[in-house]
């Protein structure tokens, strides 16, 4: 398939589920600063690599942020919605559920090795109906082996299902700089602070404070990958100073925001 632009040109897109091949690949490039794909699904699973820009992907089980040099796995038949920020370059492989029984059953994000990235980039230029049993098939077999052995990337935010917590999440996403306390959020949701803490743990497996910190980290990575400065991100997330934001980022991911993004972009053409 071709390297697609977005929005797609007429007759450019071929539905991957309609192509009788175990793996279907393509690339995506756009200079739009932001675009969204509403909730949809495919029969085939989907490996989506980000080379430039950042993606957020929401599906059952949570929200994933995908910065450069990471990929997200979306199992077949899983409803998902995607948002992209920054000028975007990405590569995608749609995988038939029967292509490899080792494929993850749940959505996840992985760190992309140089080999996996090069395989996805090369495969994006394969014809849609490549010769089965030929060179393309053998390379795609290696691609699946490399993906299955890739290490996980912990930019995942469990999303609650309780309607009261979802209202809090919607507000946080609309106003990420709102730093109100747990007790204030609890009163807005019509419960006590203790009840909000207990419900958050039940729904997400995290304390309210830990969930909120993970939310901030994911937004930070998304915005940094989209081209925002560290100062802009710190201000947008409601931090009183850049050093306090950098300290939080380093404690969570082990490196400063600048070093994190430099490592992600070091070998991006």
Automatic annotation (TrEMBL):
Matches recorded under PANTHER family: HTH-TYPE TRANSCRIPTIONAL REGULATOR NIMR (PTHR11019)
The protein, known as: Helix-turn-helix transcriptional regulator
Classification via SUPFAM superfamilies: Homeodomain-like, RmlC-like cupins
Keywords linked to the UniProt accession: DNA-binding, Repressor, Transcription, Transcription regulation
Organism: Gluconacetobacter sacchari
Molecular function terms, GO-annotated: DNA-binding transcription factor activity; sequence-specific DNA binding
Entry annotated with the keyword Transcription: yes
The UniProt record lists the keyword Repressor: yes
Domain HTH araC/xylS-type: start-end pairs: 163-263
A Pfam family the protein falls into: AraC_binding
CDD domains: cupin_NimR-like_N
Matches recorded under Gene3D superfamilies: Homeodomain-like (1.10.10.60), Jelly Rolls (2.60.120.10)
UniProt superkingdom: Bacteria
